[in-house]
Amino acid sequence: MKLTLRKKLTGSFLIISLLFAGASGVFFYYLKSMESSYNDLLGRRSEILANMKEIQLQGAMQSSSMREYLLQQSLDSQSKIGQSGANINILVQETLALVKVDEDKENLKKISKLNTEYMDEVKKVTATASVDLVKARDEANNKVYPLSREIRTLSGKLAERQQKLMEKGNQEAMALVEEIIFIVSIIGVAVVVLAIAAGTYISRMISRPVSRMTVMLKDIAEGDLTMDPIQVKNKDEIGDLADGINSMGTNLAKLIRQVRTSAEHVASSAEELTASAGQTAQATEQIASAVEEVAGGSQHQVRSVEQIAESIDALKNGTLQIFESMNKMAEASGSSLEAAAGGNEAITRTVSQMDVISKSITETAFAVKDLGEKSQEINKIVDVITDISGQTNLLALNAAIEAARAGEQGKGFAVVANEVRKLAEQSAQSANQIGEIIFMIQELTDNAVKAMNKGTLEVENGTHLVRESGQAFTVLKESVVLVSKQVDEVAAATEAINSNTIHVADSIQYISQMAETAASTTQEVSASTEEQLASMEEIMSSSTALADMAEELNSSIRQFRV
C-alpha cells in the first residue's frame, strides 16, 4: 500500500497523540491511586482517629460525671453518665464499620464490652450510694474508674495506631506523588523526544526533496535545462511532484530543442524564399526588359508598316500615272522599280523585326512560365513555413500549459512561451500574405502567358502577311523590269500591278492593325511585369521580415540551455 504524505503526517500525529493519551492514562491511574490513598488517609483513618478521641473524651466525661454524682447525688450527673455510655457504643459501632484490621476490630469490641461492664457497675454504685455513700465511693474507685481508664487506654492505643497509620499513609502518598512526577516526567520527555524525532524526520523527508525541486525550478526559470533528474526515494505526493517536475524538465528541454530546430528551419526557409524571390525579381526584370524591347520593336514595326503603306500609296499613284501617261512609262517604271526595291527592303526589315518580336515574345513566354514554376516552388516553401508555424504555435501552447502547471516558478517560461506563440502566429500571417501574393503572381503569370501566346500567334500571322507582301514586291519588281523591257505589255502589266498594289495595301492595312494590337499587348505585358516586379519586392520584404522574426525566435530560444 502506498503511504501518501497525508497518511504519514496523520500517522505521525496519531502516534504522538496515542503516546500523549498513554501518558495521560498512566498519569490518571496514579492520580486515582493517590486520590484513593488520600481519601483513605483523610477520610476513613481521620474519622477513626476522631472517633477514638471522642471515646476518650466520653470516658473522661463518664468519670467526671461519676465523681460529680458521688459528691452531689444529682440526677443530671447520672443522666450524663448514661448519655456518655450510649455515645461510646455509637462511636464503637461507627468505627467498626471503618476499620479493616482484625486487631482493631477486637479492641473496639473490647471497648464496647468494657463500656457495658462500666454501665453495669455504675448502676450498682448508684444503688449503693443511696444507702452508703462511702461504700459507693470505694466501689467506684475499685471497679468503675478502672474500667473507664481501660476504655480510655484502649481508645488511646487505637488513636495512636491510626495516627501512625496516617503518618505512614502520608509518607506513602508523598512517595506516590514523587513516583507520579518521575514517571510522568519520563513519559513526557519520551513523548517530546519522539515528537521532535518524528517532526525532524517528516521535515527532512519534505524539505530535502522540496529544496532540490526549488533549485531545479529556479534553474528552469533561468533557462538552464541541462540539470539532472531529481532522485527522490519518497513514494508519496513529494515523489509524485518530483517525477512531475522531472517530466516537465525533460519535455520542456525536448520542446525547446524542437522549437530551436523549427526556428532554424524557418530561418533557412526564409533565406531560401528571399533567394528565390531575388531570382524571381531578377527574372521579372529581364522579362520587363524583354517586353520593353518587344514594345520598342512593335513601335518600330508600326512605323515600318506605315512606311510600307506610304510606299504602296506611292505605287498606286505610279500605276495611275502609267494609265494617264504612257510616254512617261520609262521614268515611271524606273520610279516604280526604285519604289519596289525600297518596298522590298522595307518588307525584309519588317520580316526581320517580326522574327525578333516573335523570338522576344517566345522568350518572354518561357520566362513568364519559369516565373510561374518559381511561384509554385515559393508556394511550397510557404506551405512548409505555415506547417512549421502551426507546429511552433502548438509547441508554445504545450509549453505554456506545462509552465502553468509549474505554478509560480514557471511564470518566466510562460512569458517566453507566449512570445514564441506570438512569433509563430506572425510567421503564419506572413506566410499567408506571401501565399496570397504568390496566388496573384500566378494569376498575372497565367494572363501574361496567354497574352504572349496570343501575341506570338498574331506575330506569326503578321510575319506570314509581310512575307506575302515581300513576295508581292518581288513580283512587282519583276513586273517593273518586264515593263521596262516589254513596253507592249505595259497595259496588262500595269493592270496586274494595280491589282497587286490594292492587295498589298489591304495586307499592309491588316499588318498595321496586327502591329498596333501587338504593341498594345506588349504594353499590357509590360504593365503586368511591372506589377509582378512590385509583388516580388513585397515577397522579398515579407521574407526578410520572416527572417527577422526567425532570428528573434532564435534569440528567445538561445536563453535556454539544453
Automatic annotation (TrEMBL):
The residue ranges crossing the membrane are 12-31, 180-203
Q: GO CC terms for this protein?
A: plasma membrane
Q: Which InterPro entries match?
A: HAMP_dom (IPR003660), MCPsignal_dom (IPR004089)
Subcellular location per UniProt equals: Cell membrane
**Mostly located where?**
membrane
Ranges for domain Methyl-accepting transducer come to 276-512
Ranges where the HAMP domain occurs:
204-257
Q: Name one Pfam family in it.
A: HAMP
Q: Which GO terms describe its biological process?
A: signal transduction
Top-level taxon in the UniProt lineage: Bacteria
What keywords sit in the KW lines? Cell membrane, Membrane, Transducer, Transmembrane, Transmembrane helix
Instruction: Report the sequence similarity comment from the record.
Output: Belongs to the methyl-accepting chemotaxis (MCP) protein family.
Full protein name: Methyl-accepting chemotaxis protein
Annotated organism of origin? Fictibacillus aquaticus
